[in-house]
Design goal:
Elements: H1 2-18, H2 31-81, H3 95-102, E1 108-115, E2 120-123, H4 139-145, E3 149-154, E4 160-168, E5 209-216, H5 218-304, H6 309-336, E6 344-347, H7 348-357, H8 360-365, E7 368-373, E8 380-383, H9 385-402, E9 407-415, E10 419-426, H10 433-436, H11 454-464, E11 468-474, E12 478-486
Parallel strand pairs: 7-9
Antiparallel strand pairs: 1-2, 1-5, 3-4, 4-5, 6-8, 9-10, 10-12, 11-12
Helix pairs in contact: 1-2, 1-5, 2-5, 5-6, 7-9, 9-11
Length: 494
């Protein structure tokens, strides 16, 4: 059973790995899994149930045979108690009377004794004496084997009888007796042979007799039916438990396989991304030198044709686009370069104030109000000030771009139980819900001129500081970026 289940399990696992698009049923697993589990477990439990029922029948048969054998032995032994010593009509055991009395027990259907030819010499019903019984049995063989044998007699519309039979061997008379054990029937059937040394014409030869005892199987059959029903119920319960176990096992296994597939896809994605980043970094590095030359020529022509307004405007456009391209290349190189954090103790309030000075002019030109909520006391924390300044600057620029018609840029710093919470919020255009899950993905952007690397770099900086970042945004209402930085040890450096 264990071997079959193990082989089936391995085959089904391989099938799951090879077939991911199969139809599903209630558990979310392929429908063939349930059919396969039933096909594997049902024969096993069916065989177990059948074996239990067969064992029950064998046990019942053995008990009935033992009961019949005990009755035969007690019946043979009982002949000694009815023995007389001498006299006509005495010295002989009245077997018929013993048969009749014994047959009155509720579980005994009949008791009879036949000779080797099948003629009934004693029966609990006297009208059966002299008739032929069981001519289909090989009485010679039964007599020669001298072992207890049995059979089941089923008659249409009547009770089922379990019959036990063997050679009838009552003990001989008491020591000193001159006659062997004789049976006296009343009246004796005619033409019965006697032993050579017997002078009694009414005697029967006991040396070649067979005894039959019929036992009522009604109560036994009821017990068998009840036990069989219990065995079948237990078998069905075990089958259901086995099916549930197999299905649960495959649910867990399928979950693990799904995690493995997800990790595999993530690894493949990271490998492709790493290859693209390396390629892009190499291209970006080669682009920076031509950009410097283009900006230099644009500046030269701007100075040379100072008196031509149209040329001045074209030169300004060239310089602006060159600067924009240079920022894109710089961000790409920053993202591709391994992030190295150099921590030192700084005042967080001062760091935030200094970072806001860098965007004051841009905010003023777009009519954006800047509002700050800083710590009540100067808090000294250990971090990389350059990286955190870059992080804040990226968030400020994103907020300014989101408020094209003016608005409010809020920066708050608060102390939490295990660290510092920095929040940058705006009341600009916001981010759609379907885009929130991808804002930290490299090269994902909703801006026509964006690179999609700004928030990816911000996320890398936060992770390098062992912090957490989250974004809460509603389209048309604004965005709140929350950054939690744990309070690091002053002497920790990378």
């Amino acid at each position: 059973m264990i071997l079959i289940s193990g082989l089936a399990y391995n085959l089904l696992i391989k099938y799951i790995m090879a077939n991911d698009q199969n139809k599903k049923f209630l558990t979310g697993l392929p429908s063939w899994l349930f059919i396969g589990a039933v096909a594997v477990l049902f024969p096993v439990f069916a065989l177990m149930t059948a074996e239990s029922v067969n064992r029950l029948k064998k046990t019942t048969t053995r008990l009935l045979v033992e009961k019949g054998a005990a009755l035969i032995r007690s019946f043979e032994a009982g002949t000694r108690t009815g023995m007389m010593h001498t006299g006509r009509g005495g010295g002989r055991f009245r077997l018929q009377h013993l048969l009749t009395e014994t047959a009155k027990q509720p579980d005994i259907v009949h008791i009879l004794v036949t000779d080797i030819k099948g003629r009934i010499v004693a029966h609990d019903e006297q009208n059966q004496i002299g008739k032929i019984y069981s001519d289909k049995l090989d009485l010679e063989k039964i007599f020669s084997l001298n072992i207890v044998q049995s059979r089941v007699l089923s008659k249409p519309g009547k009770q089922t009888i379990f019959e036990v039979f063997r050679k009838f061997s009552p003990p001989h008379g008491p020591p000193g007796g001159s006659h062997p054990m004789m049976l006296m029937t009343d009246p004796p059937p005619p033409d019965e042979p006697c032993e050579a040394n017997s002078k009694d014409k009414n005697c029967k030869d006991q040396s070649r007799w067979i005894i039959f005892i019929g036992l009522d199987m009604s109560s036994v059959e009821e017990i068998q039916k009840e036990e069989t029903r219990q065995i079948v119920i237990v078998g069905v319960i075990l089958l259901i438990i086995g099916l549930a176990g197999v299905i649960l096992l495959f649910i867990v296994q399928n979950h693990r396989l799904s995690e493995i597939r997800s990790l595999r896809k993530q690894v493949e994605k990271n490998q492709r991304l790493a290859s693209i980043v390396m390629l892009a970094a190499g291209v970006a590095h080669e682009i920076r030198n031509p950009l410097s030359s283009i900006k230099g020529f644009a500046t030269y022509f701007k100075e040379r044709y100072r008196d031509v307004p149209e040329d001045q405007h074209i030169a300004d456009i060239m310089i602006q686009e060159t600067d924009r391209m240079n920022r894109v290349v710089s961000q790409l190189l920053e993202f591709a370069r391994p992030l190295r954090i150099i921590k030192r103790t700084v005042c967080l309030n001062t760091l935030v104030k200094d970072s806001l000075k860098l965007i004051e002019r841009q905010a003023h030109e777009k009519h954006i109000e800047i509002r700050t909520t800083l710590l009540p006391q100067s808090e000294q924390i250990n971090l990389d000030p350059d990286k955190l300044n870059q992080l804040l600057l990226n968030l400020y620029l994103n907020a300014i771009e989101a408020m094209s018609d003016g608005g409010l840029l809020s920066v708050s710093v608060s102390k939490e139980k295990k660290g510092i919470l920095i929040q940058v919020s705006d009341n600009g255009c916001g981010i759609r819900k379907e885009d929130l899950a991808h804002v930290f993905d490299p090269y994902f952007t909703t801006k026509s001129s964006g690179t999609g690397l700004g928030l990816a770099i911000v996320n890398n900086i936060v992770e390098a500081h062992e912090g957490k970042i989250s974004i809460d945004s509603n389209a048309g209402k604004g965005t709140i970026v929350s950054i939690f930085l744990p309070i690091l040890n002053r002497d920790s450096t990378d």
